[in-house]
Input
Amino acid sequence: MNSTDMDTIVEDRLISRSEEPVNLEMPFASLREFVTPNEKFYVRCHFPVPTIDPTGWKLRIEGAVSAPVEFTLDQLRAMPRHTIAATMECAGNGRSHLEPKVKGVAWDIGAVGNAEWTGVLLRDVLAHAGLRTDAQEVVLEGADRGAIKEPPRPPNDINYARGLPMEKASRDVLLAFEMNGEPLTPEHGFPLRAVVPGWFGMASVKWLQRIVVTTQPFNGYYQSIDYTYWEERDGMPTLVPLAEMRVKAQIARPHMGEVVAAGQEYRVHGAAWGGEDDVAIVEVSTDAGATWKAATLLGEPVKNAWRFWELDWTAPADRGTYQLMARATDSAGRIQPPHRIAEYGTYMINHVLPIRVEVR
Ligand SMILES: Nc1nc2c(c(=O)[nH]1)N[C@H]1C(S)=C(S)[C@@H](COP(=O)(O)O)O[C@H]1N2
Ligand SMILES: [Mo]
Output
């Protein structure tokens, strides 16, 4: 093994964060493929994975529509299909790095992946049902259900459900039956899931069974109690449902605590993504944030997908502990914050994360 491979053997297997419900993350240091293979794509579930028989399964559309309709899987597959790329990041990705420690799945930085999703547009399905003029939101309901354990909690079992504003729902949301050319696996939402491009993962409801068009904002559990953050509106802190992803660059190599040989030529690389805007700049600091250098963005930008980047670094001749950092800026000029933003609670962890490297 030459020195470039020192301490760089990383397994491809997903890391288990919990068994029931199943939560798995990708070892981010194993980042190689622009399109994350299905078996390397993180899994985030709130309840046990439901077993769904596709022959009896139907998607029901109801609420503020001309008439309720149902679609079988075959009917959906016969509609005009679209394939889109979308990077999906769990809003809690990076949580284990928060100080002080907070509750929730203790993700490292691998609760993110990029896939090609095939399915039908939500707006085509809504058009079949006919939207009423007073339609305001689109609530997506999954087939998975269970009890919430921590108060404040609804007294009975609930289904996982999330609402979307009509503007987003009728623009680019996909109802996907395929992930990277394969039927969805049970963990990723078989037979049908939503893919909400540019938004944190919680919006992309899996195991879809029902769509309810509402005339009022939906205030379900995962919209009001969980998956919210504090935003200052008219001078008042207001609870707002999480939505768009925040611009972020992550370093895949070196990984936290990696040992690098003194004076070694090292390729620092990783991925960057944001919400609905493209990544414009990635900068890297190899001196704990004192100075920054532009990294090279690789390939061409793909709408709603992450962008790989790299920077050649010569490890210092002096042994010691060094801190590497990456930060991204999107095309709207938004940049990663240097420090944690308290209002984000246990979510939207996009402040600059120092990666400690041991130079020997
Ligand atoms: N029905 C349902 N949909 C869901 C969830 C869930 O628990 N149930 N988890 C959400 C969250 S928090 C994330 S991050 C993504 C993860 O999708 P994945 O497991 O395919 O990576 O699914 C979302 N959709
Ligand atoms: Mo998530």
Summary: The chain is about 5% helix and 40% strand. Residues 44, 90-92, 201-202 surround molybdenum atom (ligand 2) (CB under 6 Å). Residues 1-8 have pLDDT under 50 and may be disordered. Residues 15-241 form a domain with the Sulfite Oxidase; Chain A, domain 2 fold (CATH 3.90.420.10).
